[in-house]
Amino acid sequence: MALYDDLVSYWPLASASAIVPFADSGVGALMVDNEGLWHFDNNANDTSGKSHNLTAYNAPTYVTGKVGTHAAQFDGVNQYFDVDLAGDAPTTNGTISCWFKINGTLTGGDIFGSVGSPALTFGVWYHAVLTWSGTSVVMYLDGVAVPLLSGTVGALVTPETTFSVAGRTDAGAYFTPCDVDEAAIWSRVLSAVEVAEIYALQSGAV
């Protein structure tokens, strides 16, 4: 399952003071069953306590971020991160979340990998969330579910355990020119209320 076509992916299927990272004041309860949390503040270390530090390929860089001090930046040519979540990888239920900003033309398809994807503007930060439970999938953009990208999907296959950011090489080579900030993955489904809360807290809307 890909969150917005090679932006952040996991594969189990065929006001400034108010902008806070996960696990900071006001969002700690959201971190139940969190399996990975990456702030990208000048490193790709996992701060969830699970030690899933991302491996960098071809030297992604760090730039001013949306949340915290920095975000990871990828050239869309061959730069990406990945990590094997092993026994912590979600299977039948899960959530992936991140902030992203597209910096150039995509070569792997629509940003959501679907006909009818919302139009996105280069250089603008968006908050993206994907949840799945069995064959039911819900995708959110800026705290709101996107109906065209939600619904029922095919049956689960044997889950992969790799979590990747900005690219993939497991089934061809696809890379996204983008900035990514505050990525996280859970082994549970975040509710619509939780998704909206995260967006509000991290966008400075509260």
Describe this structure in words.
- With 206 residues, the chain is mainly β.
- 6% of the residues lie in helices and 36% in strands.
- The chain contains one helix and 16 strands.
- It has one helix at 192-203, and strands at 2-3, 8-10, 34-38, 55-57, 61-64, 70-75, 80-84, 93-102, 126-133, 136-141, 144-145, 151-152, 162-165, 167-168, 174-175, 177-186.
- Strands 3, 5, 6, 8, 9, 10, 11, 12 and 16 form a nine-stranded antiparallel β-sheet that branches. It has a five-stranded antiparallel β-sheet with strand order 1-2-13-7-4, with no helix packed on it. Strands 14-15 form a two-stranded antiparallel ribbon.
- Strand 10 and strand 11 (144-145) form a beta hairpin.
- The protein is globular and about 35 Å long.
- Residues 1-6, 10-26 and 109-116 have low confidence and may be disordered.
* Dominant shape: globular
The span between the termini is 31 Å
Main β-sheet: number of strands, strand sense, barrel status?
A: 9 strands, antiparallel
Low-confidence stretches: 1-6, 10-26, 109-116
Q: What is the ordering of alpha helices and beta strands?
A: EEEEEEEEEEEEEEEEH
Please describe the topology of this protein.
Blueprint: E1 2-3, E2 8-10, E3 34-38, E4 55-57, E5 61-64, E6 70-75, E7 80-84, E8 93-102, E9 126-133, E10 136-141, E11 144-145, E12 151-152, E13 162-165, E14 167-168, E15 174-175, E16 177-186, H1 192-203
Antiparallel strand pairs: 1-2, 2-13, 3-16, 4-7, 5-6, 6-16, 7-13, 8-9, 8-16, 9-10, 10-11, 10-12, 14-15
